[in-house]
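Reply to thread "Modeling small-molecule complexes from scratch"

Following up on the discussion above, here's a worked example others can learn from. I took a protein sequence and the SMILES for pyridoxal-5'-phosphate and predicted the complex. Inputs first:
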Amino acid sequence: MPPSNASVPPTTDSPPRFHAVTSRHLDDLTARAGLSPDQRLGVRAVAEVLPFRANSHVVDELIDWSAAPDDPIYRLVFPQEDMLPAEDVARIADLLRSGAPRRQIQTIAHQVRMRLNPHPAGQLELNHPVVDGRQLAGIQHKYRETLLFFPRQGQTCHAYCTYCFRWAQFVGEPELRMAADSDELVLVDYLRAHPDITNVLFTGGDSMIPSAAVLRRYVEPLLALDQIESIRLGTKALSFWPRKFLTDPDAEDLLRLFEEVVAAGKNLALMAHFSHPRELEPPVVAQAVARLRGTGAVIRTQAPLIRSINDDPRVWESMWRAQVRLGMIPYYMFVERDTGPVDYFAVPLARAYDIFRDAYASVSGLARTVRGPSMSATAGKVCVDGVVDLLGQKVFALHMIQARDPALVGRPFYAAYDPAAIWLADLKPAFADRFPFDADDAAEESL
Ligand SMILES: *Cc1c(COP(=O)(O)O)cnc(C)c1O
């Protein structure tokens, strides 16, 4: 029995419009997933700490409710009771049960969040340039050639992934946000002053949240800059709200903007986040991809490897194949960051490598554009290339795909094998007393 129509817009002949599903609908939907009243309260308690947001497309077209709560797409967006320490969940559940004041619940939720490493790799502090004594919170000069830009209007998504490494941005805690206070003029000024930057990556949040008109304000000025080769837009809209590119009121204007970028001689790259092959199944996805490709845009795909959602080589194989079939280009498999409910989602590096290799070996060369498993750390992207026996020692072979210091890119290095390691911080250098990027960090800290 569908317990609620909360997420389902009335049927009309007009195209479906975006309807957010929020924590107000959580109890009805967890009932639909077959959870007991106590379990539902536990989920509500978790949702006081971690963000929850879904929408009608996710609820009605992606989730297999007959398989919930084990369904991977259900797990992709719905908080789970065991994502947080049991005593924290019990404490908040008690408060909810007794009708405690909001303020009291929020205070406890805040304390729990602070224990979840809300800023992995110095998200808030690092790489934000200071110009005229003011830190530009909306800009991260990530790598020599790559600038990240966080549009003020884009600090949300069409739905939230439970594993999101930017989760802290979405919970309404002002001190956890990367207040994106930089406007389009600051962006252009900064680029003019840094001619090495050839790539601007719009991220956040989902870059497809701002309207086409707002996006145009940021993108158009970049077209006049000769140094800019690529404009990248980080988005999960193709998965969570593909109608953004088809029937939303600004769809035409958005596609026209992409055409203009291409006509200006720049690469418009949509960095599409797909976590599971199911997300590619609704026919509107193929339609949206076709329209996007019709503008000359290139779609590259990426996702983290997440326990209980996509930690199976067959899932990645099938996802990469479906993407190639639609004309998309597999780009990255990420290792889940060390933030939020990390114990819940983490896949050990050794297993991540096995999954990557197994999937990679199963697809044609056209899907082997993908790289990974890759850790996005402060110093750059570290890729696990394999496990080898060298000089009688079992080690991880690694290399940097990206580095703040370009001299470190592409040079092999090693770490002692540890089957339980889930992140760079768990690794110890092998055949050396430090990792190549450690010097880089030390130099940075001494500045
Ligand atoms: C991967 C990544 C980028 C882009 O790096 P490329 O290797 O050029 O695609 C930018 N920012 C972050 C945080 C990243 O993880």
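What I'd highlight from this example: Confidence is low (pLDDT under 50) at residues 1-6, 441-447. Residues 17-114 form one domain. Questions welcome below.
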